[in-house]
Amino acid sequence: MPTPHNNAKKGDIAPTVLMPGDPLRAKFIAENYLDSPVLYNEVRGMLGYTGTYKGVPVSVQGSGMGMPSIGIYSWELFNEYDVQNIIRVGTAGAVADSVQLRDVIIGMSASTNSAYASQYRLPGTYAPTASWELLSAAVEAAKQSGAAYHVGNILSSDTFYDDADSLADWQKMGVLGIEMEAAALYMNAARAGKNALCILTVSDCPLRGLSTSAEERQTTFRTMMEIALETAKAVAGK
Ligand code: HPA
Q1: pLDDT in tens, 36-81
Q2: Does the pLDDT of residue 1 top 80, yes or no?
Q3: How many angstroms is it from 151 CA to the middle of ligand 1?
């Protein structure tokens, strides 16, 4: 059944979906990494494709930027399209001193300054957490890739341009990097009884005033895609 935001019919979308923020990134991934990609959604330009990777059905769809946007698309994938696994592939700013430009971060948990969890009416603070199955498969793939990678807590922020300068406080708590979507994705997965993971490449260091060149982003993107696709393959049929 199509939703207000997705034209796909049930069965058009694979059990595992990769989600970059940028829908044109989804098109690029479909055309360069998947065999026989078929476009299933164009509503609001949020392109979604299904193809195969090493024979395993995989979909790729944009999430848009921020938790409200990934909240909508991932909720529909989990609850309306029988999607089992969503792997976000994106970029992050480095927060921990140990994290360098171009490194890969695998988000074991996602702290947040968002009020997204308030909808669950919990009498405490919820800890958005990745799926162990996806996380352990991704760590294995990261080891194989030879990439410099970190596994731990990330910060999903509602603000890219933040007036409060609070990054140093998050750094004191061991946060590795900052992005804007994982916490909502992890909460939607938990609520639906499904699996989610966020894999990131470090595109900038806000605390050190550094950023990568377009060329460097290409290379690190390839490494992240290799990790994400091998993770999708590892969990296929489970
Ligand atoms: N802040 C938030 N999201 C990001 C950043 C950042 O510095 N870099 C890449 N995604």
Answers
A1: 999 999 999 999 999 999 999 999 999 999 999 999 999 999 999 9
A2: no
A3: 17
> Which pLDDT tens digit goes with each residue over 192-210?
999 999 999 999 999 999 9
Architecture of domain 16-235: 3-Layer(aba) Sandwich (3.40)
pTM: 0.97
pLDDT over threshold 80, residue 238 = no
Mean pLDDT computed over every residue of the chain: 96
Ligand 1: does its nearest atom lie under 6 Å from the Cβ of 179? Answer: yes
Give the residue, out of 102, 204, 212, with the most ligand 1 atoms within 8 A of its beta carbon, to mutate for a pocket test: 204
The reply to whether 165 belongs to the active site is: no
Does 160 contact ligand 1 (Cβ within 6 A)? Answer: yes
Calculate how far, in angstroms, residue 113's C-alpha sits from the geometric centre of ligand 1.
14
Which residues lie across from 199 on neighbouring strands?
89, 106
Q: How far is the CA of 88 from the centre of ligand 1 (A)?
A: 14
Residue nearest to atom 10 of ligand 1 (CA): 92
